[in-house]
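[Q] Does anyone have a clean structure-token version of this?
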Amino acid sequence: MNRRVAGTTGRPARKAAALTSALALGLVLSSCTSSDADARSYTVPDSLCGTTVDPALLSPFLPSGEKLTTREESPSGGTKRCTLLVDGEQSVVASRIWWKQGDGVAQVGSVHAQVGKGEVSDDSRSLFSATGGVGKTEGCADPGHPEQNLFTVIQVFAPGKGDAPAMKRLVPAYTKAVEGSDECRPPQGAAGS
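[A] Here you go.
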């Protein structure tokens, strides 16, 4: 009988300890899975330095934070770079780069650290990985860049923000927006020019 009494008095304490542990674990897990959108004090932009992009496509790559700023640069050779910084930290870089004809998205991606090997689309116009992607524009030409094609590059630097399925949607959408921009002129001699 003493065993039963001793076991009975210990159960409520063990149950309480187990319940407390389960509640604590639940709180920890819920704080880890809270959405970055809930922790953002800034608005996800609807363009990358003037090139329209759906904020829903960009959102998966942006971390929580207070302030988003944009920095635009043209480092060399016709490259244009748009950097999104969250609280001063580089988060996403979108580039437009002229590259020699004959090379494809894999060659362009190979020199961008965040792109990695990635997966090439069936039409060979885009390459994407969890943290980067490359798109090849169609119908873009520039007399200042003869025998070159215009490519788009997206790189994600925000820790823990890789998402290959989301990148697979973002790269073609950004590339299409660049194709519709003033930077993309039809080649001379093309119909309608």
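[Q] Thanks! Anything notable?
[A] The chain is about 30% helix and 25% strand.
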